[in-house]
Fold this protein.
Amino acid sequence: MQLALMCRNPDLYSHKRILEAAIERGHEMDVVNHLRCYVNITSHRPQIHYHGKVLPKYDAVIPRIGASVTFFGTAVLRQFEMMGV
């Protein structure tokens, strides 16, 4: 499966363990800092851009959103949902 871990700090122990567990089970996982994302909200083809590139289609997203950025983090998560993730 192609997975995305939505988090701000991939060096936290819990995030490292999630990443390790996914790789051990044969999944591919990308770490995405949701504060560095921008979204294209067109109704016919929603997209999320990250570091100037369109993110691929993921099978699932694991959100690890901090309390200080809940509003923007959930907006990015809803965009993933609109993309069929």
Observations:
- Strands lie at 2-6, 28-32, 37-40, 47-50, 53-54, 60-63.
- The chain has one domain: 2-82.
- The chain has two helices and six strands.
- The radius of gyration is 13 Å.
